[in-house]
Write a structure and sequence with these properties.
There is one protein chain. By secondary structure, this protein is an alpha+beta fold. The protein has one domain. The protein is built from six helices and six strands. The strands form three sheets. It has a two-stranded antiparallel ribbon with strand order 1-5. Helix 2 crosses helix 4. The two termini are 24 Å apart. The mean pLDDT is 85. GO terms for molecular function: RNA binding; structural constituent of ribosome.
Length: 142
């Protein structure tokens, strides 16, 4: 299931659309992941700082809009801002935009995880559905 979500290494991050299937998958892997609803600022910071595109199965830094336009132009996504907008609003081409982005390689959170990191978020740990609190965690890890 983690492979289906493209979470192959520790501290990886991806954007997924909330569907019934995804919700069921998240429930199964909840003891090992943290997830939530990022705000626009978080999405922007992630894409600009740690954004890499997938071009011919290679990891390519998003240095200019030409890379985005070449690969996503046919979906009407021609620049990095369009990419961020498509992901944040979960637009009609969200799947293509999300799959174009290589999974984000995040750092350990500054200050480390909480001492009870293997407990669920509602029990004072770091795992599971953090809802809006995901923004603070991503900010620490970015």
């Amino acid at each position: 299931i983690l492979q289906l979500l493209r979470l192959l290494q520790i501290n990886n991050g991806v954007f997924v659309k909330v569907t019934k299937a995804i919700t069921e998958m998240l429930k199964v892997v909840e003891p090992w992941i943290a997830y939530g609803y990022p705000n626009l600022k978080t999405v922007k910071e992630l894409v600009y700082k740690r954004g890499y595109g997938k071009v011919n199965k290679q990891r390519v830094a998003l240095t200019d809009n030409a890379i985005v336009e070449e690969n996503l132009g046919k979906y009407g996504i021609v620049c990095v801002e369009d990419l961020i907008h498509e992901i944040y609003t979960v637009g009609p081409n969200f799947k293509q935009a999300s799959n174009f982005l290589w999974p984000f390689k995040l750092s350990n959170p500054t200050g480390g995880f909480r001492p009870r990191k293997f407990k669920h978020f509602i029990e004072g740990g770091d795992l599971g559905n953090r809802e809006e609190a995901i923004n603070a965690l991503v900010r620490q890890m970015n």
